[in-house]
Design brief:
By secondary structure, the chain is of the alpha/beta class. About 30% of the residues lie in helices and about 20% in strands. The strands form seven sheets. It has a seven-stranded mixed β-sheet with strand order 4-5-1-9-16-11-10. A seven-stranded parallel β-sheet has the order 30-24-19-18-17-32-31. The longest helix is centred in the middle third of the chain and has 27 residues. The relative contact order is 0.10. The N terminus and C terminus are likely disordered.
Length: about 950
């Protein structure tokens, strides 16, 4: 134990022993450190923190450590996993722990802290989505008070303080402790809440908590922090729609930020707690419809001018401009978004209004506050070059963005390599570009002006959603455009000679090439991923939840050569390659043969017949005895002695021409590369990068984890409290036509077509087990990257019949159209699933009413992942105002949610919910509710060939 005199400098100070105890299973070479705000715990320097020692106790690994502190000691502290050099590998999620020693401790007495590792999943209810929105005005946490006394085997009283965090959904007057003596040295207990109504109480769910055997010598006092009070599962529903797809009576050819207020009204009245959007950042790279792709950001900080409401720019718009706006409304009010015409019209009108009121706006306090929050602080920074990531605290993106937009338009390209002396960014050049004395200052200010109003309009909509109890969920794209503000300002953060994509998967057998440069994670780590933290800080101004696009990219990314056309010839970065020495040990010697083009003329003859010579001479580079572009191993361009097995190696004609020994060796190495050798590396990589994101805001985080999923992904996501994604029509389990939701792990987020037999199985299990044992996920019938429910049903007759037989349980022929009864049946399965969230694309919700299904189903698909030049232009064909007035549709949807036991927001300002007492927020679906769904679908079984059906 540390000598207290060395700590305090006063040998007469009363010394109290402080003992830490925490169960945590580590890997070889890892250990635990406790670090805190006071010097005795390292003053937040982990290398000087208190090292803990491991001790096996049954199947658990218990870490312990002791030190001496003065009486009355107070501090904050957290636990960290470190390597042998005390480098931090991971740390606890959530708030720092707070320690205040009990009064009356005598010299030499020991206080023992019994802690549990805080995971992010434990802290989900503390995210802004729940704290500031869903549970707004009814929030209570960190209720910490002594609640009981333990009788020990020595027949002495040990004061024990039980620390419990409580999330208050209904009003809670106090928390009490129920305990029972099991043996001489073990006690178990449960907490329960005493409600506002006299005599009502609500015990927590799950098995009893247990206090393990006390250490020797016996401590004077125990402070036991046992995590969050275990509530009954909260379940909610949401609607997903791209911002550009929204249609309103006021919009100018595309959805606008202020339309979100009407969408929120409809969501609340329909029973939804969440509205999910696609990315809303500026994508104006090419100046044409290619810019409709929402995941190719021009700037990860700037908002898209497409979503600006020009009518809201001023209260004094001249009549001639109002008339121009009205003409534009009529002209642009089409079936789909006309991206180029809409952008040109909005910017033209906005410039006219800007000329009229620029002096007033640019000199206003509100604009100056916005400008100050988002500009660089040049006076503080004396370096010639200042990166965007180094200005994270100042959020200094606005000036570089405005300068970039000016240069893009001046040079008529976003390719900054074509900008002459402005190709290389510097503070000096930037300051001259944005100077008030420059001839282009008005142009620069126009971009400030647009971003200012976009901020005001989105912030207004976001605050409206919060007040209504609706979570606004954003989207964090994995990439940025190669010709973007971010690559101009911070080129060192990107590998500009590479491209990002995905290996072959459900969406595309050739893989995907997204065209984004990959990230230079080593460079990003130097300032603790400040660029990423800045992005999340900016998002949190408007959103209380977000989706991490392609979360696999934080474990590893599929990296392609810049010149690649498809996603086939890629490799994972980071990854452990096959070394030349390793291959030679296995008897593989001819590296040129394996890594250079190889297609024999016989293959071309088979594919192209008499035209094979024309194809070969015009489209193939001949190499050695009529072999053409087809490879087995990809040679590392940065190290010629390293190789990567090409994806789907066995499908190549080059591989098929190999001898059996080489085939067997390469198949084994291929399998090892893709499914074994990288796991530890990717696990460590994700635990370096993802916590920096998650800890930079308090938004609720969800991860899109589709594709080729390494086994390390789901454990890391669960540890970090990330909700994942499943689409049942794309099962990750081999040999299944549809995924099995009952097999998904806790905190899995699923987009599924849930089978009725599984619903009954889950409900039956719920009736006989604790609700706390049921896994949570998010469920929905489709997402923006796949066809809608209607299109999926109608595009494949064989699959439709299979689904009708296995899921509906009927041998009859299904309807050829996804009639409202089919849509209703599938939606009901989703809302009755034991998931935390059920989120539905708006198109799938509209499918429950016949009048909203007149548009061809194929036209409702938002994205085609197989087409890199897809035009993102889908618009909902009914206005939000009409949906708000449609009482029948809202009633149908709300009845679905109410009947499922999911929570739904009040219709006015959010109020304290008493859902737990009434069973609204926590009730499990009943057998009667499932039976009702069967009765509705039975109408179709009676006359399967009839498409005219009863109105719901």
């Amino acid at each position: 134990m540390v000598n207290l005199g060395l700590i305090s400098g006063n040998k007469g100070t009363k010394s109290v022993g402080l003992s830490f105890r925490i169960p945590y299973n580590t890997q070889w070479g890892q250990s635990l450190v406790v670090c805190g705000s006071e010097s005795v715990l390292g003053s937040w320097n982990v290398k000087r923190g208190l090292a803990l020692s491991p001790q096996h106790q049954g199947d658990e690994l218990i870490w312990r450590g002791s030190t001496a502190v003065p009486a009355g000691f107070e501090c904050e502290y957290s636990y960290y996993v470190v390597d042998d050099d005390r480098n931090v590998l991971r740390w606890e999620a959530g708030k720092k722990r707070k320690l205040v020693l009990p009064d009356g401790l005598r010299n030499g007495e020991v206080v023992e802290l019994h802690d549990l590792w805080q995971t992010s999943s434990d802290g989900l209810p503390c995210t802004s989505a729940f704290r500031n929105v869903i549970f707004r005005k009814s929030w209570s946490t960190e209720i910490q008070r002594p609640l009981g006394v333990i009788q020990t085997k020595l027949d002495e009283n040990v004061p024990s303080e039980f620390c419990c965090d409580v999330i208050e959904i209904a009003r809670v007057d106090e928390v009490e402790l129920l305990n029972s003596q099991l043996s001489a040295d073990i006690c178990d207990w449960q907490f329960y809440e005493i409600g506002a109504v006299e005599g009502n109480f609500c015990p927590e769910t799950g098995p009893n908590r247990e206090l393990v055997e006390l250490s020797e010598p016996q401590p004077r006092s125990i402070i036991l922090s046992d995590g969050m009070m275990r509530e009954m599962p909260w379940r909610g529903a949401g609607v997903a729609v791209p911002m550009f797809s929204v249609r309103s009576e006021a919009d100018l050819g595309v959805g606008e930020f202020l339309d979100l207020k009407i969408l929120v009204d409809w969501a609340v009245e329909s029973g939804f707690h969440l509205v999910q959007l696609l990315p809303i950042n500026d994508t104006s790279v090419h100046g044409m419809w290619w810019d409709s792709y929402p995941y190719s950001s021009l700037s990860v900080f700037a908002l898209h001018p497409l979503y600006l409401r020009v009518q809201a720019l001023s209260e004094r718009i001249p009549e001639e401009i109002k008339e121009e706006i009205q003409r534009a409304k009529e002209l642009l009010d089409g079936k789909d978004v006309d991206y180029e015409a809409t952008m040109a019209t909005k910017l033209s009108i906005a410039k006219k209004i800007f000329v009229l009121e620029k002096d007033t706006i640019l000199n206003s306090d509100s604009f100056n506050n916005f400008f100050t929050e988002n500009e660089f602080s040049f006076e503080v920074e004396q370096h010639f070059y200042l990166s965007l990531s180094q200005c994270v605290l100042g959020q200094g993106w606005l000036k570089p963005y405005a300068a970039f937009c000016f240069l893009r338009d001046f040079f008529e390209t976003s390719d900054h390599s074509q900008w002459g002396r402005f190709t290389c960014y510097s503070i000096d050049k930037l300051e001259k570009l944005v100077s008030k004395d420059s001839v282009q200052y008005d142009v620069i200010c126009f971009h400030y002006y647009i971003q200012f109003h976009l901020h005001l309009q989105l912030a207004e909509a976001a605050e409206y959603a919060r007040k209504k109890g609706v979570v606004l969920k954003g989207d964090l794209p994995i990439g940025v455009d190669r010709n973007s503000v971010d690559t101009w300002v911070d080129p060192n953060l990107f590998r500009m000679n590479t491209s990002t994509g995905a290996p072959p998967d459900y969406f595309d057998k050739n893989g995907q090439n997204w065209g984004f440069p990959t990230y230079n994670w080593e460079e990003m780590s130097k300032d603790n991923y400040a660029w990423w933290r800045a992005r999340l800080t900016q998002m949190a101004k408007y959103f209380t939840a977000y989706r991490i696009d392609h979360i696999l990219g934080f474990f590893r990314i599929w990296e392609l050569p810049e010149h690649a056309m498809t996603g086939l010839v890629g490799k994972f970065r980071p990854s452990i390659p096959l070394s030349q020495e390793e291959l030679e040990r296995e008897g593989i010697w001819d590296f040129n043969r394996l890594s250079r083009p190889y297609i024999r003329h016989g293959f071309l003859q088979e594919k192209f017949g008499a035209y094979w010579t024309v194809i070969a001479s015009n489209f193939m580079n001949e190499y050695e005895q009529q072999r053409y572009e087809n490879i087995v191993l990809i040679r590392d361009p940065e190290d010629a002695s390293k190789f990567y097995p090409r994806f789907n190696i066995e499908d190549t004609s080059s591989f098929k021409d190999l001898d059996d020994h080489s085939k067997n060796v390469l198949k084994r190495l291929y399998y090892d590369y893709y499914f074994h050798r990288q796991e530890s590396l990717w696990h460590q990589n994700a635990l370096k990068t993802l916590p920096a994101l998650l800890n930079s805001s308090d938004m609720l985080a969800c991860g899109e984890d589709l594709g080729l999923i390494p086994s390390c992904v789901h454990p890391v996501m669960q540890e970090l409290g990330l909700i994942g994604l499943r689409i049942q029509r794309m099962p990750s389990e081999p040999g299944l036509d549809f995924g099995i939701p009952s097999h998904y792990s806790y905190m899995t987020s699923t987009y599924l077509l849930l089978q009725l037999t599984l619903i009954l199985e889950i409900i039956a299990a719920m009736l006989h087990t604790e609700l706390s044992n049921v896994a949570y996920w998010v469920c929905a019938p489709s997402c923006h990257d796949c066809s809608t429910l209607r299109a999926w049903w109608e595009e494949d007759e064989e699959r439709r019949c299979q689904f009708y037989k296995t899921v509906v349980g009927s041998d009859s022929l299904p309807p050829s159209r996804c009639v409202p009864e089919i849509a209703y049946f599938i939606l009901r399965q989703h809302v009755e699933a034991p998931s935390m969230w059920a989120i539905f694309p708006l198109q799938d919700l509209l499918a429950v009413k016949e009048e909203y299904t007149t548009r061809p189903a194929a036209e409702e698909t938002i994205n085609d992942p197989t087409n890199p030049k897809h035009y993102w232009r889908f618009r909902v064909h009914v206005t939000l105002e009409a949906l708000v007035k449609d009482k029948e549709l809202k009633s149908t949807i709300k009845d679905l949610i109410r009947g499922s036991g999911r929570s739904y927001p009040p219709t006015g300002e959010i109020e304290v919910q008493a859902g737990r007492e009434k069973g609204v927020a926590t009730a499990a679906p009943t057998k009667q509710q499932v039976t009702a769904g069967l009765e509705k679908i039975s109408l179709l079984n009676e006359s399967p060939k009839t498409e005219a059906v009863a109105v719901l």
